[in-house]
Design a protein that fits this description.
By secondary structure, this protein is an alpha+beta fold. 27% of the residues lie in helices and 28% in strands. The strands form 6 sheets. Strands 6, 7, 14, 17, 18, 19, 20, 23 and 24 form a 9-stranded antiparallel β-sheet that branches. It has a 5-stranded parallel β-sheet with strand order 8-2-1-12-25, with helices on one face. The chain is globular and about 65 Å long.
């Protein structure tokens, strides 16, 4: 079995590990536009332009090379349960079932367990606990030792330009550019795991999407509350705990009018020591200012170290922290299409039109009201930072979804005879989580239960 995997990021790396676990004699060719050096959109040579409200999901949210965005941000391994959606469509119902079926075995691949219960703290809000991968062990490409797999041939610095079909549902070859020369190769089966936007570009360039545009949505985020004196809300403590070097995180999740939202804590925004530490660890920028802030705040740094080493939790500066509300942007008129302008590879880039859904302000207002009621009932000392939420000034969170549409999981598995499209864009709703890990159980189901019937 000769398999092609396009993209060496989170999904490409996980796909290869799952394939070799099921089919140890398979031969796999991995294409990636980068190499071991992780680069941004601009650094790698891609191009995207904006026609409406600024959206940084492409320029700031995606990275290229072995491990992709997992090298930069890691991420929380969160999955769906029946609590997440009150009225899911058949596809999301199937996704939830597969999440619950494969969650434990999926997390085991990362040496993680998550037996934390989801608790309804009100009639409409429940807690979800997740694991944020350690800064020292978060790159999927490295976690699964892809470069050491003898069955895998890595073609790096190779840009997939398009894929060809037999005119129906079978992929016949992949076209790619390496050293300025376009080449092609054929395989038995293909996994397109190049990220939501790049996968959309490839499908558009290949004529595999009848329309000239791909609609999408994303999360919107806004800082809404400042919490004082305590890290607990009712019976739930929201301070991040530590397991090894991973963080155990907690959030509140709710819903209004079939639009999900989540409420997540952000600690130490005003703590110079912590902000400098994040600059060094996450952005890998060792600056004089960062070092100075760490030294000046040595007393607080000792408190930070004591909390981490002995209490195994995050230190909270001045015992004050913030709550952000993130919602699924209820938009139907945000989309990407091929740009007339070409990138450094001579390939048409992407043009992005991003708008805020008309109902966004109503969703935010309702979400805020639900949280205010819960904070008051829990006798929390808090401050509302935004009485009226300006949806035009919300931040983007880079969880693209609502791009590709399927009736149910079987229609998704069978969209092509010999290719599976893997990115968060297949989800009609992102819900109250970073949805990346929610697709890993779907991959496990397909590779372990469905792929054998397609080869």
């Amino acid at each position: 079995m000769n398999i092609c995997v396009m993209g060496a990021g989170a999904y490409g790396s996980y796909t290869i590990d799952a394939l070799l676990e099921k089919y140890p004699k398979a031969t796999i060719t991995l294409f990636d536009v980068g190499d071991a050096a992780i680069k941004s959109e601009k650094e790698i040579g891609y191009f995207s332009s904006l026609k409406s409200r600024v959206y940084k999901g492409l320029s700031d949210g995606r990275f290229f090379g072995f491990g992709g965005a997992t090298e930069k941000w890691g991420g929380q391994l969160l999955t769906y349960t029946e609590n997440d959606f009150s009225n899911p469509n058949p596809f999301m119902t199937d996704v939830v079932k597969l999440n619950e079926k494969h969650k434990e075995s999926m997390l085991k691949k990362f040496n993680i367990t998550n037996n934390y219960k989801e608790n309804f703290v009100t009639n409409t809000l429940f807690t979800k606990t997740g694991v944020w991968l350690s800064v020292f062990n978060r790159n999927f490409f490295k976690i699964f030792k892809i470069q050491q797999r003898k069955q895998v041939t890595i073609i790096s610095n190779a840009r997939v330009s398009k894929i060809a079909t037999n005119g129906e549902k079978k992929i016949t070859k992949v076209h790619y550019i390496k050293n300025g020369v376009e080449q092609e190769a054929s395989f038995d089966y293909y996994f397109l795991t190049t990220g939501a936007f790049e996968s959309a570009r490839i499908l558009l360039s290949s004529g595999l999407i009848p329309e000239k545009k791909v609609y999408f949505s994303d999360h919107l985020s806004q800082k809404v509350f400042k919490i004082k004196k305590n890290t607990s809300i009712g019976k739930e403590n929201f301070v991040f705990k530590m397991k090894g070097f991973s963080l155990i995180t907690k959030r509140l999740i709710g819903e209004y009018d079939n639009c999900s939202f989540y409420v997540h804590p952000v600690f130490n925004m005003d703590f110079p020591f912590f902000q400098s530490l994040k600059t060094i660890l996450f952005k890998k920028q060792v600056t004089l200012k960062a070092i100075k802030n760490i030294i000046i705040n040595i007393p607080q740094a000792i408190g930070f170290g004591w909390a981490v080493l002995f209490h195994r939790r995050i230190y909270v500066y001045k015992n004050e922290w913030f709550l952000y509300i993130d919602i699924d942007n209820p938009t139907n008129d945000s989309f990407v299409s091929l740009s007339k302008e070409k990138d450094t590879f001579g390939i048409n880039g992407l043009e992005v039109t991003y708008n805020i859904g008309e109902n966004a302000a109503v969703v935010y207002r309702n979400a805020k009201d639900q949280v205010v009621e819960h904070l008051k009932n829990s006798k929390v000392d808090f401050e509302i930072l935004a009485e009226e939420i300006d949806v035009q000034n919300t931040e983007d969170i880079y969880h693209p979804h609502k791009m590709f549409h399927y009736e149910n999981i079987d229609s998704y598995f069978n969209e092509y005879d010999n290719m599976l499209l893997v990115n968060t864009g297949i989800l009609p709703r992102s819900g109250g989580i970073n949805p990346t890990a929610a697709l890993l159980p779907i991959l496990d189901e397909f590779i372990n239960e469905k792929l054998i019937y397609k080869i």
